Amino acid sequence: MTTISSLFKILSCRDHVDYVLVVIVISSVLWYFWLYSKSKRQSPPLPPGPWGLPIVGHLPFLKPELHTYFQGLSKKHGPIFKLWFGSKLAIVVTSSEVACEILRTNDAIFANHDVPAVALVNSYGGIDIAWTPYGPRLLMLRKLCVNRVLSNARMEKSVDLRRGETRRTVRYLADLARAGSPVDLGEQIFLMILNVVTQMLWGATVKNEDRELVGAEFSGIIQGMVDLLLEPNISDFFPVLSRFDLQGLVKRMGGLAQRMDRLFDRVISQRLGMDKGSEGKGEDFLEVLLKIKNEDDEKTNLNMNDVKALLMDMVLGGTDTSVHVIEFAMAELLNNPDIMKRAQQELDEVVGKDKIVEESHIPKLPYILAIMKETLRLHTVGPLLNPHRPSQTTVVSGFTIPKDSKIFINVWAIHRNPDVWENPLEFDPSRFLDQSYDFNGNDFNYIPFGSGRRICVGMAMGERVVLYNIATLLHSFDWRHPQGERLKIEEKFGITLKLKKSTCYDPSTKVG
Ligand code: HEM
């Protein structure tokens, strides 16, 4: 009672009424700010996305050609949308602006990859470049590879190893051409690139008589690993189940990884057994990596498993990608004889009709470079990059992207955006002749090698190998479809995009 009566007393006094009004106004303002800051503190929503089923989420609805499937969904759900793969949240990005927010503005946060269960097995526990999370160790490994193993200077020293392999394939194709036999070019390109890559890895180490044997064993293991990396794995969608390896994929990868490890041991012991005088002559990658391992440098500090994991990266990263770029380029050229003729004219002018192509000619072949760029635009062999993973929850384009979600950047769809590319489905290398796009990932409308901290470390080697081999195939032969038909160029989605059906070609020899 006393309180109420004193309140009345206060209110009855005019000074006190003013006082109360001031308190009410201040409280209202404070309350408003509290509400405002509370609403600010609530995180923005997750990106939109289609409905999924309980537990399995969107898994039952996925289509094998993920790149085209995601492109279709983006038309309905926008440039950034979400899907649940079991308990894993996937975020799909389909615009260069959002890709830039992820790969440039927030690059340090998103510069990690989501390691599939099987990849842990064939990468010595994820210690290689592709799976090491962003941090000092990754920076050290990448620097070492870019500056010392895959650098342009190092490439120069291994020119002879690459030339030998490519010329060997040309001689074989020339024999087939003379006999009038059509060529399964996909198979030949695979063997040629595999040999080129292995020559660079240990070509100066493995003796001639052992080469075929190592090559055959190696090729079988690589194919098996690529297939396993592609297989959808329950352990990745429900990590709590991973220890059961319900599909036995980890076990199968373990078998292949053991075979590969034995093969690495065999090659390494050959190199270690070589007499001191032969060191440095061949300049293969193995020799360089072993030298780095033996250096007394605290910052580098590689052990033998690190060396093997890096060799694995180069094999897996270097083979499939380059093979498919060359295969797509040749298929498009077969369908576009005018473009093939223009490329051959450039080669005849720069190289000469009766000479053979050398890597030193490459900087003088802008049209061949434009063919490679256009092939990588239209048939982006790394269509979704290697999915990135944020190390912390982040806001992108007004949406919350939770820590550890799986980020797919649909570069394939970005490269076909009609607002940027005129007639995007047409194969037209001349759009690259003005040099406005390069491979460095600075313009997010064109990022075939990725961009930022996780951009491909083998870009210099990939560019060289692809250009040199396309140039050699076009300069040495005229190519035709055996039945003279137009090819149906269909893509097959995988860790790398490839031609659905390998095609037969009719080569006729220009120079032997
Ligand atoms: C034309 C040929 C090639 C293309 C189109 C290509 C494309 C790519 C792409 C798109 C990525 C993923 C970037 C990302 O996740 O953001 C990548 C990563 C990588 N590439 Fe390549 N690549 C090629 C050749 C090579 C070669 C020749 C090697 C090695 C000898 C190589 C080794 C790697 C490695 C180790 C990574 C992982 C980098 C990391 O995660 O930090 N690539 N490449």
UniProtKB/TrEMBL annotation:
<dbReference type="GO" id="GO:0020037">
    <property type="term" value="F:heme binding"/>
</dbReference>
<dbReference type="GO" id="GO:0004497">
    <property type="term" value="F:monooxygenase activity"/>
</dbReference>
<keyword id="KW-0560">Oxidoreductase</keyword>
<keyword id="KW-0812">Transmembrane</keyword>
<dbReference type="Pfam" id="PF00067">
    <property type="entry name" value="p450"/>
</dbReference>
<feature type="binding site" description="axial binding residue">
    <location>
        <position position="456"/>
    </location>
    <ligand>
        <name>heme</name>
    </ligand>
</feature>
<keyword id="KW-0479">Metal-binding</keyword>
<dbReference type="InterPro" id="IPR001128">
    <property type="entry name" value="Cyt_P450"/>
</dbReference>
<dbReference type="InterPro" id="IPR036396">
    <property type="entry name" value="Cyt_P450_sf"/>
</dbReference>
<keyword id="KW-0408">Iron</keyword>
<dbReference type="GO" id="GO:0005506">
    <property type="term" value="F:iron ion binding"/>
</dbReference>
<keyword id="KW-0349">Heme</keyword>
<keyword id="KW-0503">Monooxygenase</keyword>
<dbReference type="InterPro" id="IPR017972">
    <property type="entry name" value="Cyt_P450_CS"/>
</dbReference>
<feature type="transmembrane region" description="Helical">
    <location>
        <begin position="16"/>
        <end position="35"/>
    </location>
</feature>
<protein>
    <submittedName>
        <fullName>Flavonoid 3'-monooxygenase CYP75B137-like</fullName>
    </submittedName>
</protein>
<dbReference type="GO" id="GO:0016705">
    <property type="term" value="F:oxidoreductase activity, acting on paired donors, with incorporation or reduction of molecular oxygen"/>
</dbReference>
<keyword id="KW-0472">Membrane</keyword>
<keyword id="KW-1133">Transmembrane helix</keyword>
<comment type="similarity">
    <text>Belongs to the cytochrome P450 family.</text>
</comment>
<dbReference type="InterPro" id="IPR002401">
    <property type="entry name" value="Cyt_P450_E_grp-I"/>
</dbReference>
